[in-house]
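User: Second chain of the day. Same drill as before.
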Amino acid sequence: MKIPALLLGAVLGAQSALAASFDDPNPEIAAIVSEVSPARIEHTIRTLVGFGTRNSLSDTVSDARGVGAARRWIKAQLEGCSKESGGRLQVAFDPHHVESGSRIPRPTDIVNVVATLPGDQPESRDRIYVVSGHYDSMPSSPTDGEKDAPGADDDASGSAVSIELACVMSRHHFDATLVFMTVAGEEQGLYGSTGFAEAARAKGLDIEGMLDNDIVGSSRGPDGRIDQGRVRLFAQGVPYGKEIPDALLPILRTGGENDVPARQLARAVARAGATYVPGLRVQIIWRVDRYLRGGDHFPFLKMGYPAVRFTEPVEDFHHQHQDVRVENGVQYGDLPQYVDFGYVAQVARVNGAALASLALAPAAPREVEVEALRLENDTTLRWAPNHEPDLGGYRVVWRETTAPDWQHARDVGNVTTATLPVSKDNYIFGVEAYDRDGNVSPATYPRPYFPPRLRR
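Assistant: Same format as last time:
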């Protein structure tokens, strides 16, 4: 389609007009957000703390203490929620045997607890979105399986987010498949998430997004200031490995380093949060993680899956990776009195809104290209058609090259090519798919389509 130049003003101002049709709250997603319970989240966190330690090297036999008791309790909670949903939530242990490592001094079984909610739409069921927290904990030493390690914030808080959303969302229906995980072995070197991600890649699973929740429990910084209105979301740009994957080279060569899949996922998460949980701002940080730290989204990124990490706004390191003690009048240890359960619930609501938005929307458009066939001031985009039966159409989004988020949008209908009187030289473009209910996919950055003589 060709948009006449005289409509340029209308095109540039289209975003506000589209907001009413695409960004009004979906009642189903609003219901999910409203069903998140701070009281249940508090119960989950306090129960996990009550196991004394959940270190991956701790007791696996006792029903009262250690990592084994914790994972069996988590599985039982998820099975109870599955029963309430008519058995739709498929709950299982996901074990991975580790012989040894820098923080694994002896052969150890690292066991994730995984709950899968299959999608209802055959065309979308193989598309998967994962939410995760790690249920293991550590005192000052990651290899000490005997000492108390309450792990209330790191990471019973993230585990509580995943468990709560599994129980809430299993009562609702989605096109795509959702996976709710609590993983082990994070403190020893991301073993549980690595095992899952590597197995997923070996099986060829189509994981379109992974949300890691790690240290999302405290709104109070070390100076005592409280910030309940913000959560950080870390999103990788250029991969940190020695070699850049071939699939990313066309993106980087055309200035799209801020438009890799993980950052498109982050934008979609932030959009859902702003729509459904306006009291908690998602602060996107264009980094893979904090300095000197890492999380369970790393293995997913390494396997080529889009993944992001939620973390509280300001961390108090007196209450992370510390033996429980009082020293010089200062309380150390990751104790539940330092967790803001209402804040955790807000983080869970953002996660739930994002997961529901992603799993109800069509897949992000594939094979998106921008024509670079001639010198011109227009921009022509084309893409492969989506196959969802409820597809409504597509919209083109764009922004200035220095802007962090989309500034303009244009609904182009159910077509697979569109021409806009806006120069591709001056703007970053993307293409989104939407269904007939107005659910919108993340954007896909277009690769350049050059004349044959210029292709390499």
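The chain has two domains: 5-25+365-454, 36-360.

User: Great, on to the next one.
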